[in-house]
Write a structure and sequence with these properties.
Blueprint (H helix, E strand, L loop, with lengths): L4 H27 L6 H9 L3 H17 L1
């Protein structure tokens, strides 16, 4: 069976970082995103290209896992 726990971890980290930067309003923007505009919403919330958002999340997970 496919272990999707990494998806939950990643989603939690995205929510944490968005909340730290934008508070509840940012979470609602994320929550109201669609499959079609999800990447664009993340780019606006993080103020960087999607590829850099992905890298930030991976870096956060990597840093946290070393602690």
């Amino acid at each position: 069976s496919f272990d999707n726990s990494i998806l939950y971890v990643t989603g939690g980290i995205i929510c944490k970082l968005v909340y730290e930067k934008h508070g509840e309003k940012g979470i609602w923007k994320l929550y109201n995103s669609t499959n079609a505009n999800f990447k664009q919403v993340l780019e606006k919330l993080f103020d960087k290209p999607y590829e850099n958002v992905e890298k930030s999340i991976i870096d956060y997970i990597t840093k946290y896992s070393k602690e």
